[in-house]
Input
Amino acid sequence: MRSVTDVKRNQSSEHCAAVRLEGLSYSKFMGLIHKAEVDINRKVLADLAMNHPEAFKAVVAKVKEFAK
Output
């Protein structure tokens, strides 16, 4: 059985890689996601990144609006 820490680490690495493909660092993305008041948890982000890449890209695009 995997520990909670292992699951969180795996989820984080999944969407971290996807965020980098969109031109942002993970820490910058997480800061902007809070600034943009997008209420979404890491588990959902990881699922979107792995299984719904177009939806994940839409979240990233929304968050990037706050980077300007």
Q: What stands out?
A: The chain is about 75% helix and 0% strand. Helices lie at 4-21, 26-35, 42-51, 53-64. The radius of gyration is 12 Å. The CA atoms of residues 16 and 26 lie 5 Å apart.
